[in-house]
Amino acid sequence: MIKQVAVVGGTHGNEFTGIYLLKKWEAEPKVITRPSFNTETLFANPQAFSQNKRYVEHDLNRCFDQRHLEDDSLTSIEQVRAKEINALLGPKGQPRIDFIIDLHTTTSNMGPTLLITQKGAFYNQLAAYISMEMPEVIISCDEDHKANEDHHFLSSISKNSVMVEVGPVPQSVIRHDVFEASEVMTHHILDFIELYNQDAVPALPETTDAYRFIKSISLPVNDDGSRNGMIHKDLQDKDFTEIKPGQPLFLTFDGEVVTYEGEKSVYGSFINEAAYYDNNLAMSLLEKITLKTY
Amino acid sequence: MIKQVAVVGGTHGNEFTGIYLLKKWEAEPKVITRPSFNTETLFANPQAFSQNKRYVEHDLNRCFDQRHLEDDSLTSIEQVRAKEINALLGPKGQPRIDFIIDLHTTTSNMGPTLLITQKGAFYNQLAAYISMEMPEVIISCDEDHKANEDHHFLSSISKNSVMVEVGPVPQSVIRHDVFEASEVMTHHILDFIELYNQDAVPALPETTDAYRFIKSISLPVNDDGSRNGMIHKDLQDKDFTEIKPGQPLFLTFDGEVVTYEGEKSVYGSFINEAAYYDNNLAMSLLEKITLKTY
């Protein structure tokens, strides 16, 4: 039974959509509550927002593994904020909040995507329900192979959680279409939790198409480690479409086309995501999977 | 006769396209020189780039009016950098550089746009030439009604200049298509200068379709001045298309549609440009014009 839900926005300070959705919901809280549970909101990183940056010192969404939360010597703005949020919603391990919905956006052409980081019947049914109610949503899985306490996402504070990830939208911009898709998807997730709580989940499709994270790949670099290329235009905006062996991935600034050299087809996500440039990452590679609902 | 050209990138530190184009050209300088003139490159705001921001303290592209350049009490990072750049390329009034091409990008769906800030036969012919060679380029004029010394753009250091403005691309991202369009447009501008210098400009179309800046308009705000709305989805990505009286411009977060209340149709540019949020601007409004080549 899920009794306490938290909807979180602004975990990244320059992802405006969640931040303004929170303002909207805070003005009319009843639209995000349901009969069987309470919902609260949390603006996770207002300091980063006020500086119009993803984060001030550390990416807040990498600060929530148990070891970091317990280490009093970690005192950056985000490390301190993570401890505050853990006190507000957690503590991790014995959390007050049963379910976190963390709202994110991406500069990549991922459309409305539901990011699932855990396995289980609840998630397979949620994926089937969301796909049925909002067929344009992509289900993208990166299920935790490590213990939840070692997980660094904000959403790992609660035992169950999802991330809503919608794009494309530039950093520090609100797009009406992305705003609306994030809003509608969140409502469907809340509706599903209500149905689940009430033991009233309707008949769902037997299977759901989804993608599963394999690995991230990097942009080309020079011998000195400096960036030497960009996503090839044939791949730009082609999130969740097939990448075949031999297909162009990158164009270097000196004009060389770098192709995909894997043995079998994969799919990309977070293709040319602005925030990935910090670590010179180009995209995530995924495999296509089928989730069985029952 | 134009003898010295400067191609400038990174006037805004999070507009990566110009910065990486400069790296490419600096590795092979001959591609941007022509027989009748020399071309040099300038990376205008490396400090902002290293912080992954448009600017550190002040927008560098608002720091070049004569009064600011001569005021030694102005000591922010960009105010100091403006004086350095003025010494390198100028000094304004008697500049060493005859022509500046300043490379910019926008998060708006403006496609490849040539921004012209001066009137004259040279510019009308340049507009006609670029439109002939690269028909997808939009010509957008905001001709200076004030003396050049009062103009605050970096490009106002030289007597003649243009800005290359290409989108959509998120801040802090390189898109291959935007990179390529910026590169090709710059080459055409350099080719035109060469033809002009050699008195060899070919026969050009008699007229060129263009747009002229009228005014900027703001996003909706609450009584306390805080932002209360976003660009309506029907207008998003519709730069340089007609905005008719009565058409939706904005949606407020409480659900009200705000329409365009002008008496005659206009056209938008910089629609939902991320950098405009600092001043809560929504877009520029333009009128359609025809430039006569001769």
Structural features, described:
Two copies of one chain form a homodimer. Chain A starts with a strand and ends with a strand. In chain A, the strands form two sheets. A ten-stranded mixed sheet of chain A has the order 2-1-3-6-4-5-7-13-12-9. In chain A, strand 4 (111-116), helix 5 (121-133) and strand 5 form a beta-alpha-beta unit. The model of chain A has no long low-confidence stretch (mean pLDDT 97). Chain A contains six helices and 13 strands. Chain A has helices at 16-27, 46-50, 66-70, 77-89, 121-133, 176-197; strands at 4-9, 38-43, 99-105, 111-116, 138-141, 160-167, 207-218, 229-231, 242-243, 248-252, 257-259, 266-269, 281-292. Chain A folds into two domains: 4-205, Zn peptidases (Aminopeptidase), CATH 3.40.630.10; 214-292, N-terminal domain of TfIIb (Single Sheet), CATH 2.20.25. In chain A, helix 5 (121-133) packs across helix 6. Chain A has 294 residues and is of the alpha/beta class. The interface between A and B is medium-sized, with 30 and 30 residues.
